[in-house]
Amino acid sequence: MQESPILSPDPRISFSRRALLTGAAATGACVLMHPFSARARENTAHLRIMETTDLHVHVFPYDYYSDKPIDTAGLARTAAHIRQIRAEATNSVLVDNGDFLQGNPMGDYIAYERGMKHGEIHPVIKGMNVLGFDCSTLGNHEFNYGLDFMLKVLDGANFPFVCANLSKGTLSASARNDELFLKPYVLIDRQITDGAGNAHLVKIGFIGFVPPQIMNWDRRHLEGRAMTRDIVQAAKAWVPEMKEAGADIIIALSHSGIDATAYSEGMENAALHLAAIDGIDAIMTGHQHLVFPGPDFADLPGVDAQAGTLFGKPAAMGGFWGSNLGLIDLMLEQDGGRWKVASFTTEARGIYHRDGRKAEPLVTSEQDVLDAVRADHEATLAYVRRPVGRTSAPLHSYFALVADDPSVQIVARAQIWYITEMMKGTEWEGLPVLSAAAPFKAGGRGGPDYYTDVAPGPIAIKNVADLYLYPNTVRAVAISGAMVKEWLEMSAGIFNRIAPGKTDQMLIDADFPSYNFDVIDGVTYEIDLTQPAKYGADGSLADPKANRIVNLSHNGAPIDMRATFIVATNNYRAGGGGHFPGIEDDVVVFVGPDTNRDVVVRYIVDRGTINPEADANWSFAPVPGTTVLFETGPGARAFMDDVKGVAIEPAGDGARGFARYRITL
């Protein structure tokens, strides 16, 4: 296959995609065809493959947590691109790459409040049906509400779902003998028109994959009912059969991101290694909430982040929440009666452009998509506005990565309250209960507005969902004081190593997810930033001599490394999520039926009025003559003086609309 990374293959043709899109969309002007369509001749044809991924129920361009419209999300906005792109080409297909079912209060409202009866159609499926999707695969979040709920949702789709590595019960000796929940692949006969106006049939194959880690992340729903196979092994089994069945073009729908490390069985992000499999022509990838092609994946072996290729094959990742549409353009040609890829381009087309702190929309919503889910949208608004209690102090997460934080504090207190009660009458009653909680909304890839910010006064369900984004369930582990320290050492990997005596060093490692920065409440400790990180992102021991966690105490005395502690956490962490050392099945002592979010709601209802003021149980160890910089949302300015245990001052504007602050250590 020949790689064609140039946007316009004909040097005589040049155009700006943004100008084309915004101009045509705004004025209704005639649409300029893509160069592949313009250049196609007899027995050559242009095929466009469009991808949404990680929609997380974002159909309306609306932030239910802040209860306001937004310009940076929503399938209704992405729909404008879909229709524009179809108009630019003679032939096109539209696919989704998974994680469409959970991720905002609309998903929770349907799952927990309204329910799904057979014959009902989920709102995200309504939106997808309006747009005429051709195929989809499953993401890991499809399983958060259980298999039965998921299967009812899939029944409402006017398009097929494929997943080649999710089986019922146990795995067979051979992948082709696995009893799968869904078809491993589908072959679609698509009539396409070549450059001379002649109609041809092209057999397009779609094969799908889900991260094997769902067996840990949603074990309570899947254990005993399902099993996953390695993504690459499943592809090697099924792709040859697709070719034998006559597939001209094979497109992998991989809800699995791009990881350039050497292949290992069970990889979570296996898209790059999928591209190495003979017979796969294009990769639609996702799961990482990033954009490809683009700088997020620059300089990785086997990856061309500018051309949008994985081992020389075209690939696209369309961001998340409908922020971008992944797009692969293929120039097909007949070869011995079969069609093959002769050339290609790749792109991720955004629905907005960020100018400093402001997001400028590039498209407007498609009305028929909005209309399809309007009743569900209105019901969700009523659901999230329901009050459950009051807070006497503001709840915000602007400084959650640099100081003890009220939004994390309230989750930690609720978990301790719940687990202390659950331990009564068990062999663990009377042991000290600690609580591990992480900031979920802490900027990062979510942007400068992606923070919790709740004013004193009534707390509604939308505010609790804002505090705890995911429908995790409560778990508790029994571990030693030494393991508590190692848990915190892993969390401290979010910080860059700081050189003493130097000023304005960047504090946060942007590649470390904030949801893996656990703060453990019930102990006090300091973090020595001059030390290297002890653990790598995969939980591997990076520096055995490192000692970032210092002055770790419990009840005012140095922690007893041999004592046993109960730590309240969630199913993701207790199931191995984040690769925290020693946190696995054999230390789990309680598996709760309740979501962490519901526990927070119950805690607020029980208390009536809460005081979420942080108690500063952790801080940075002093480093004289040293300053560091970090970025947070512009709204942080109002709360800067309230932060305990750290000296913070403004330091100008950061990148992408963030504000920059300085800490004197």
Give the secondary structure arrangement, pairings included:
Layout: H1 17-27, H2 35-39, E1 44-52, E2 62-63, E3 68-69, H3 75-88, E4 91-96, H4 105-114, H5 123-131, E5 135-137, H6 147-155, E6 161-162, E7 166-168, E8 185-193, E9 199-209, H7 214-217, H8 219-222, E10 226-228, H9 231-244, E11 249-254, H10 271-275, E12 282-285, E13 291-292, E14 303-304, E15 309-310, E16 313-318, E17 324-335, E18 338-350, E19 352-355, E20 358-361, H11 367-384, E21 387-391, E22 395-396, H12 406-422, E23 433-437, E24 453-454, E25 457-460, H13 461-467, E26 473-480, H14 481-491, E27 505-506, E28 519-521, E29 524-527, E30 549-554, E31 557-558, E32 564-570, H15 571-574, E33 588-595, H16 596-607, E34 609-610, E35 618-620, E36 627-632, E37 647-653, E38 659-664
Parallel strand pairs: 1-4, 4-5, 5-6, 9-11, 11-12, 12-16, 21-34, 23-32, 27-36, 29-35
Antiparallel strand pairs: 1-17, 2-3, 7-10, 8-9, 13-16, 14-15, 15-16, 17-18, 19-20, 21-25, 22-24, 23-28, 26-32, 26-33, 29-30, 30-31, 36-38, 37-38
Helix pairs in contact: 4-11, 5-11, 12-16
Describe the model.
This protein has 665 residues and is of the alpha/beta class. The chain folds into two domains: 17-379, Purple Acid Phosphatase, chain A, domain 2 (4-Layer Sandwich); 387-664, 5'-nucleotidase,  domain 2, CATH 3.90.780.10. Helix content is 23%, strand content 28%. It is built from 16 helices and 38 strands. Strands 8, 9, 11, 12, 13, 14, 15 and 16 form an eight-stranded mixed beta sheet that branches. A six-stranded mixed beta sheet has the order 6-5-4-1-17-18. A hairpin with a 4-residue loop joins strand 14 and strand 15. Helix 4 crosses helix 11 (367-384) and helix 5 packs antiparallel against helix 11 (367-384). The longest helix has 18 residues, at 367-384. It is globular and about 80 Å long. It starts with 16 loop residues before the first helix and ends with a strand. Residues 1-30 have low confidence and may be disordered.
